[in-house]
Structures are given as structure tokens and as C-alpha cells.
Amino acid sequence: MVTASVAPVVAELEQRFHVTWERTDRLFALVAGDAMLDRPIPLRHPLIFYVGHLSAFAWNHVCRGVLGGPSLDARLDEIFDRGIDPDVDDPTRCHPHPAVPDEWPELGEVLAYRDRVRAEILSSMQDIVIAPSTTVMAVNARALVMALEHEQMHQETLLYIVQQLPAERKVRPRPPAVYPEWDALRTRPIAIPGGTATLGADFGKLDFGWDNEFPSVTVTVPEFVIDSTPVTNAEFLQFVAAGGYGRRELWDEADWTWKERTGLRHPTFWTLRDGVWRYRTVLDELRFGTARDWPVYVSLAEARVFARWRGGRLPTEAEFHRAAYGTPGGAERSFPWGDEAPRPEHGNFHFAYWRRSRSARIPRARAPGACTSSSATAGNGPRPRSRRFPASTRTSRPTRATPPTSSTASTTC
Fold this sequence. Notes:
This protein has 413 residues and is mainly alpha-helical. It contains twelve helices and eight strands. Helix content is 33%, strand content 8%. A three-stranded mixed β-sheet has the order 1-4-8. A three-stranded antiparallel β-sheet has the order 5-6-7. Strands 2-3 form a two-stranded antiparallel ribbon. The longest helix has 22 residues, at 7-28.
């Protein structure tokens, strides 16, 4: 029986878990049964790992970590405990993780393990909510919120992994995806006045936050100029056509080395067939014209070199926050569009579409310069070092900053 005083909290958490699990199951349903051992990205485990990892993480940190429960299945708890995590400074190396088994468990065994963990999470929900606050993760059911955030982050990971699976290794959902065409809003330079930006968060103000989100730091941002919309596929095509991938002088040393090692000559999800560019979504291959005005999806290395080629640079984190959340009066808003809760017209949330969202429409930002970009760079190229907030303010002059390109977070979830 659920205690009346915590019943609303338990009910809300149960609903959030059910919604999150349903979304995860929808993603794995895209993978053909015999493709679960496929490994589309070398620095990631086979897909079957993630079926078990989401549950093992929740079990090890919630039922074992907070409640002190026993191992559910010692072998599976260990195998699925931690995935491959490439080193930030050297993506060819990985942080320590459990030994990869010579043979992965059968899918049926992993699904049974998943179902047991989910049932235990639900049946233990009240005990977790009222658990004595003897550890940080026990306070305010923080471990449960962490498990939710962890699974939702992996949903984004699964999207770009599945996107790299060959079409014949996927199962198309019903109804099929629809890809409407539209004309993007013409980009224009926006002058962002100098002001402050808040980076990070205060620990006590969040139900849960990852360690690199703390503490809250307020920094001063000099004035700068930024484009009003994200870079589109059509704009990036100009860089490709100009031979940008072969121009050594445009690339940083590390970025060029990575590009040469991977053999990349264009964005990962573009294909040149019979002299005609095609665009690959999670589910389909489209003619390029359909996706020409979608935000381009590239790695940090490619975004950096494009900005340099165009005579600009990527914004610092502080500039990004100032453009997205600042107001002309100097205050900061909760979201780029204001303080109201997110609605469908503000973004592509909760798997509303199996496609990118129109650059001109999402989000309806009303920050200092009314920029419509709130996306972040994503991909498998070289990544920036772990965030050190004060360093984010360094900029040599109020130079033009090209908005980052699109991410899985902002365009497919």
C-alpha cells in the first residue's frame, strides 16, 4: 500500500517510467531481431548491450545503490553495468569498462532481465521515495530521476546508432514517417549586446543533475554577432562543393587527423549516388531537396571547419546561453521562447517526428536577438574538453559566431 503523503510523487514517477520505457521499446523495435549483435559504430557496443544496460544501470544505482538490495543476476549486472566511453582527449581510447563477453547473452534472456528490473523498480518505488537520506542519491528520490535521465540520454544515442544501420537491418514503424518540405527562414546576422550568462546550476535547485552541471557560475559575455538560424544542409553543401573536406589549411590538426583516419569526405548521413546527393534519416533515404533546409547534422570537427571557412567561428558556451536565454534587459529566461512550459510549437519533443524540424519554426526564441537556434553540435568526431565554466568566457573580439549545427537532442527527440 502506498502511503498517502507520497502517493502523488510515486504516481508521477511511475508515469514517467512507463512513458520512458515505452519510448525505449519503440526504438528497439526498429532493429531487426537478427541485427541485435550488429555494431554500427566501432566505439560503441553491439545493440544488444543497450537492451540490458538501461536496466542494469537502474538496478545497480537504485535498488542496489539506494535500497542496498542484492544482485539481481550477478553476471548480467556486471556485463551490462557500463558501456564504452571514449576518452574526451583521444577518442581512439576508452575509459575502463567491464570486459566484453566472448558471447553475448541471448536476446530472450536479456529481455527477461529487463522485465524483472522494471517490475522491481515499480514495486520498490515507495521504498525508494521514503528511503532515509543517508546518501546524496537517496535524497528526493534522486536515484530514480537519474535512472530516467540516463535512459532518455541513451534514447538519443540509440537514434544515431540506429540511423547508421543498413536499411535491411531495420523494421519500419507504422504509420510510416512523413517528410514535409518547406523553405527555411533566411538567416541574418543578429547583434547580441554584452551581458551576463548563467552556466550550470545550483545543486539544491535540481531534483537531479550530472556532476559537470555544477556549480552555477555567472559570467560576463562581451557583445558578439551570431546568425539567426542553424546552418542548413543546403548551406553546408556549398562547403562540400567548394572542396572544404580537402582543404588542409582550414582544419585544426586534431580535426584533420580524425577526418583522415575516418576517411570522411562529406557528412555521415549524406550519400552521393550517380552524381546526386541523397539524405539518410533514421528510417529512409530521401532526395536531398527534401532535407535541404533542415539543420545539418555533423560532428564538432566539421562544424568548426565550416564556421572557419565562412569567416566565423562557433559560439562559446557562454555566448550560446546569452543568445538563447538572455533578454535585452539583462535578465535570463527559462527557455529561449520565454518562461512558459514547452509546447509542440516550441520544439520537436518526445518523438513527435521521425525527422528533423524546420529551422525557421523551432524554437520560437525571443532572446536578445531573437535567434531561432538552440541546437548543439553532435557527432562522433573530436569532442571539447570537460567543461570548466570560467574558461567559457574567453573570446578575442566581438566576431561573428556561427550557430552550432543540429544535434540528436534538438532535432529527433
